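Reminder: ligand-aware prediction takes two inputs, not one.
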Amino acid sequence: MHVIHRRGWEIPERLATPEHLFFNRRALLAGAGALSLVPGAARAQRISDVPDPTKDLYPVKRNEKFTLDRPVTDEKINTNYNNFYEFGSSKSVGKAAQALKLRPWTVKIDGMVEKPQEIGIDDLIRKMPLEERLYRHRCVEAWSMAIAWSGFPFADLLRLAAPLASAKYVRMETFLDTSVAPGQRQSWYPWPYVEGLTIAEAANELAFLVTGAYGKPVSKQQGAPLRLAVPWKYGFKSIKSIVRINFTDERPKSYWEALQSSEYGFWANVNPQVPHPRWSQATEELIGLNERRPTLLFNGYSEYVAELYKGLEKERLWA
Ligand SMILES: Nc1nc2c(c(=O)[nH]1)N[C@H]1C(S)=C(S)[C@@H](COP(=O)(O)O)O[C@H]1N2
Ligand SMILES: [Mo]
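Here is what comes back for the chain with MTE:
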């Protein structure tokens, strides 16, 4: 039998510290081993789905403004090492996630807006100016990747929804369907997954709604058909498979905050100097590169976002 040595991106147990409350080493190892399952997962997707109706749109033109200080993570690694608790608490949820049906898919835009609407995902995607961006992604578990996302600026969604001046926050929700997502049958989790931003954060040019990755429609395990990317925040803010975008004057309570508010808060900005209650955030494991690096304030995106948090120093900005 082929003996598999630990690769660099298989995080040593003492450094790997996932969001879920009790660390499951077996699950992590299964995630690493799942690279061998790629063909199976791909086949499952081919059988259960109609061809993606937006496929012709990709690849889209790269916006060269957003550059990286590291290579893009190999697509096979990115799509085989995921956090998507709806499909299980291990990193190897890629196969289980293929059960998600992507069409029909409706996104409800409601709450404090001038233009409440329910819009089919294909109408939404075709209305929006798609571009590719290379973004870093820093999980609160102290690992990172770099991904070639495709999608559109959140600012364009704001234009479509036209929030009222009284709206302060945007609250997003993932689908809820226990018949496809076994994790959602675990009733101790606060389903559905919820995340939120202030309107000012959503309007920031970095805030990006993802519809594609690596030059094609985004995969299910990465959060198809619509997922958030806010690269200056810890990865859990990047909510997947969004079905509702609600505008409100009440600060949304996010999934991880509802589960464990002593460890996870609303802002969740990356800061290497503020440790998680159970581990350091000073460095990160670059998955796939066998490398550990110092983590940067705002994950290296200070020039875009530091201004947003002036005057909020008393708030819990770093959890
Ligand atoms: N709906 C939903 N969104 C989610 C999660 C999840 O479990 N469910 N996990 C979050 C976490 S912790 C991370 S690090 C990223 C992982 O995205 P990736 O699998 O594409 O790397 O998704 C985020 N979005
Ligand atoms: Mo994460």
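Residues 3-17, 20-43 have pLDDT under 50 and may be disordered. The CA atoms of residues 298 and 317 lie 10 Å apart. We will return to this case in the review session.
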